[in-house]
Design a protein that fits this description.
The structure is a homodimer.
Chain A: H1 9-21, E1 30-31, H2 34-41, H3 45-57, E2 61-64, E3 68-71, E4 78-82, H4 86-92, E5 97-107, H5 111-117, E6 125-134, E7 137-147, H6 153-157, H7 164-171, E8 176-185, H8 188-194, E9 201-211, E10 214-223, E11 228-232
Antiparallel strand pairs in A: 1-3, 2-3, 5-6, 6-7, 7-10, 8-9, 9-10
Chain A binds a DNA duplex through residues 7-9, 33-35, 43-47, 49-50, 52-53, 63-69.
Chain lengths: 233, 233
DNA sequence: TCTGATAATATGTGCAGACATATTACCAGA
DNA sequence: TCTGGTAATATGTCTGCACATATTATCAGA
């Protein structure tokens, strides 16, 4: 059990996992320091460090200098969900992807949105509405504002043929973003776009992205009724 | 610019980020190998490795042995959202937390759920329904099945005073889980529990967890109307 | 031209040692 | 008793080196 056969960091990580899981090290409890573990496992401290650091990033351990390492009391599980790139999602379903731009006009976003975007005085914006379809049926309806001042290329692009999301991904990298998921009843407009009943429950994503402190885009995506966003943890 | 002042991995990471961002290294393009970068930055290869590995985990780079490192064409942004522990979420809002068990009875889940749980022949289950409140108002209504065979302590516990989620977190650690987010129209039961109109759009989370291949619990949580799940990316 | 063995190469990881840094514990002095 | 300085300590990270491993490129032989 305590022989020195944990020679790589994955093995060390698995052994630590096992001990936490088997409650040999109970939640909230301190575990031995890296040096001792390294001796026990018969490996270098760096190897133990790598394993423990990984588990700490995963939320299973809490580490603080000098204070030591303890088993997390409330393992904050982190679900990493990839921001859906719609075309890929639809194609992975084996369905044919379609895109249609419905609306494109320069204008000024409402006051509240400007604040959220941390927009500057003379920023110019364009509003783009579009639907993306799977086998011809509406999949997502999106309503987006793009900051033309920070993304000048967007003006020529126009998003008539390619979805803004896709174009922006490769042409306007962002450094930060906020994202929110919620449920909403379909308005008349949304219901019309998604070809469903008004009032149907719709899964909605709000997303805002910045390049450092310069806003790039703000988008609200309405998914077709029944859409499920899934992941493993 | 190319002087050797990138002595720690964070600095290297930032410099690489900057170059990707400034399109010195464009999407899809190969970047120099670790050895060359180490020489350029005036640090050890391990330091460069740490930085690049981190960026690769973040989805900005794609690395393959021998093939080298390239800038990701479609940076798959990963939003890491912590699975909400309701009590903490409510208390962080500065509101008073409440819990009430509404239903507790042994029984057998429907066939479809049993399959999803990968349940075994003689597994015993208990169904628990409860609400959690913020300042007295309903916040979440949840409908849960707990596997008593894998979590025997659950039978004595009963979840009369503490939410199942909280108790399970510290008493039945899980190794894997599936989670899904979607929107649904409130049924009569849900509307009654959340004190809203039937048909209101409700944000719903389905979650199933396992301890290795032994199912622990399956839960569906209905959040109060207007609930938003937020995170940064 | 095709196929399979082999060499070349970039990343992945291990080790030992060193120093950096945050944080705690302790103790002297007011 | 309280306070501020100092020592002790666990983690954080860098270095230089080595070898492992996956993958590609190459080339000989059929």
């Amino acid at each position: 059990m305590t022989a020195g056969e944990f020679k790589n960091w994955q093995a060390v990580q698995e052994e630590v996992r096992r001990r936490i899981h088997a409650r040999i090290w109970a939640p909230g409890e301190m575990i031995p320091n890296e040096q001792d573990l390294a001796e026990e496992f018969g490996c270098a401290r760096a190897t133990v460090n790598r394993a423990l650091r990984n588990l700490s990033e995963a939320g299973l351990l809490e580490r603080r200098r000098k204070a030591g390492t303890r088993v997390a009391l409330h393992p904050v599980r982190k679900a990493t969900l990839s921001i859906p790139m719609i075309r890929k999602e639809i194609e992975d379903l084996g369905q044919s992807y379609g895109y249609e731009r419905l609306f494109y006009r320069r204008g000024t976003p409402p006051e509240a949105l400007l604040r959220q975007l941390k927009a500057r005085e003379n920023d110019q914006f364009v509003r783009v509405k579009s639907v993306q379809t799977a086998d011809g049926a509406p999949f997502v309806f999106e309503d987006r504002w793009v900051n033309l001042t920070t993304v000048p290329g967007a003006a020529e692009q126009g998003f008539a043929e390619t979805s803004a999301n896709e174009w922006l991904l490769t042409h306007a990298p962002y450094t930060e973003g906020d994202i929110a998921f919620f449920a909403g009843n379909a308005s008349e407009e949304v219901a019309g776009m998604l070809r469903c009943e008004a009032g149907a429950a719709i899964f909605v994503i709000d997303r805002v992205t910045w390049d450092n402190d310069r806003s790039i885009t703000s988008v609200r995506q309405y998914f077709r009724p029944g859409y499920r966003m899934q992941t493993s943890i």
